[in-house]
Amino acid sequence: MNDYLQLQGVRKMFGETRVLDHVDLSIREGELVTLLGPSGCGKSTLLRCIAGLAELDGGRILLENKDLAKQPPRSRQVGMVFQSYALFPNLTVSENVEYGMKMRGIARPARRSRCEELLALVDLEEKHDVYPQSLSGGQQQRVALARSLAVQPKVLLLDEPLSALDAKIRKNLRAEIREIQKRLRMTTLFVTHDQEEALILSDRICIMNQGRIVQDGSPEALYTAPRTEFVARFMGSYN
Ligand code: ADP
Ligand code: MG
């Protein structure tokens, strides 16, 4: 199978600090890859580089063999969900979901029907006309997920989408995200610092530390054959 999204030697500096240090990463179409690492290791920065919210200081990012740097962020076909919900508070649920489609000039009837499909997908058909603040955290994240899928991205980036939620809601939404991802065969890069989440969700896990990917493999391989003590501790292979 071909690599769908490829990061080649990606580097990012903030001042003198090397936040991404030669990151290589390939994701196949339809795969869910988790980037797992401690706070501050560069996970969000990596997602922001893919989404076009931050510029690279070196290396390349290719989507279907095309260099993303040559495409403006809005036409990148990359969807992103953040840790905090980041919905527009003054727009209703359906206006939030339709926002990106509207920006791209998609006509109202098409927006409407796509919005209905997506709200059904995330189980929020009843909530079209309410405002975000009347929803629970889990429901807001589902709206954020629907909104990011609305523009039919080729890649979905999820930046710790569950970490602000209570344990029970987190587990339910975790399972739902995986189900939706599989159903849509959505190529997904999921970021977390929670090893249990990574073990349950992922086709493949990349362990990140200090701006580098230190090991990449199946959940089983990382758990049973960590190459370093850092990976072993992070995977909970021993405590
Ligand atoms: P993670 O998401 O893994 O917690 P981040 O990508 O947010 O890590 O941050 C990686 C490092 O880059 C941290 O040391 C952070 O302080 C630094 N950093 C992130 N964004 C900026 C910025 N805009 N300016 C300066 N330093 C930043
Ligand atoms: Mg982060």
From TrEMBL:
This is Carnitine transport ATP-binding protein OpuCA. The complex is composed of two ATP-binding proteins (OpuCA), two transmembrane proteins (OpuCB and OpuCD) and a solute-binding protein (OpuCC). Residues 5-235 form the ABC transporter domain. The keyword Cell membrane does not apply. The chain holds residues 1 to 239 of 347 of the full protein. It catalyses: a quaternary ammonium(out) + ATP + H2O = a quaternary ammonium(in) + ADP + phosphate + H(+). GO terms for cellular component: ATP-binding cassette (ABC) transporter complex. It comes from Paenibacillus albidus. Keywords: ATP-binding, Nucleotide-binding, Transport. GO terms for molecular function: ABC-type quaternary ammonium compound transporting activity; ATP binding; ATP hydrolysis activity. Its EC number is 7.6.2.9.
